[in-house]
Amino acid sequence: MATQTAGPVHVAAPTRSARPTEFTQSEPIVQVRDLNVHYGAFHAVAGVSFDVPKNSITALIGPSGCGKSTVLRSINRMNDLIPNCRVDGQILYHQVDVNARKVDPVEVRRRVGMVFQKPNPFPKSIRDNILWGAKINGFKGNADELVERSLRQAALWDEVKDKLKENGLALSGGQQQRLCIARTIAINPDVILMDEPASALDPISTLKIEDLMRELERQYTIIIVTHNMQQAARVSDQTVFFSLNEKRQGVLIEASPTAELFTHPRDQRTEDYITGRFG
Q1: What is the pLDDT of residues 121-154, one digit of tens each?
Q2: Which of 253, 248, 195 is nearest to 78 (CA)?
Q3: Do residues 215 and 155 lie in contact, with contact meaning Cβ atoms separated by under 8 Å?
Q4: CA 188, CA 74: separation in Å to the nearest integer?
Q5: How many helical (H) and strand (E) elements, i.e. helices and strands, does the chain have?
Q6: Which domains does the chain possess?
Q7: 203-216 vs 173-186: helix axis angle to the nearest 10?
Q8: What is the rounded (10 degree) CA torsion for 263, 264, 270, 271?
Q9: Contact between residue 162 and residue 83 where contact means Cβ atoms under 8 Å apart
Q10: What is the pLDDT of residues 164-223, one digit of tens each?
């Protein structure tokens, strides 16, 4: 919760329990090594390296245009879909470089699912939204069980169990976003990327998404881009702070357990950002 002072806005320590010792010893599931991303001649992200521990929530924060979403999209090769985008360096997922020639990007995106900023359910029934990706990926099991399990994991089952044949677009914004999370869960990933998943939602829906993330952390690894520092403080175990260098390239300033970064940042630029002096 932010407290208003006569000077800059300060972000309080995280409200969730911090686990710095346990956290720093966790096995990394994703390792980013010297990541550079170019859009044509523009060098957008320069030399980014950090680890993502298994069964954790990692928040990527920083001012607009500093490369947070670019880095996030690199992890499951979504940047492949952008013309003239070139990615250099390594992104290791279970020690496998996702950009290696032998690696199928479709399989990467099955294992590393993504939830976008704006809810994007398909113009299909709630049930078909859940089953669509699963069937494309060869699901042969009990469809009813998969639908119920996915919706329960996304904390949506009780709200929609009697209207599974209704169009997913008829749901509220917050429900649509949880439907998209359920659709992602249905393809059985072990990493979920979230690009500002609550930025278009009202405060009540936002809190539901945050509560859901904390539940999902038990089974999945989550990486979230957020402009909301209070949100990063509330939900994440690790926070990675990005900024811009003198060439307007996105660079990583520091990555620390969230409680540590918000209370004892190592870099003055981090302190300036979280206290509202810039950004």
Answers
A1: 999 999 999 999 899 888 899 999 999 999 999 9
A2: 195
A3: yes
A4: 20
A5: 11, 12
A6: 22-120+191-274 (3.40.50.300)
A7: 20
A8: 70
A9: no
A10: 999 999 999 999 999 999 999 999 999 999 999 999 899 999 999 999 999 999 999 999
How far is Cα of residue 73 from the mean position of the Cα atoms in its chain?
10
In angstroms, rounded to a whole number, what is the distance separating the alpha carbons of residues 106 and 126?
24
pTM for this model (two decimals): 0.90
Tokens 């979280």 correspond to 274
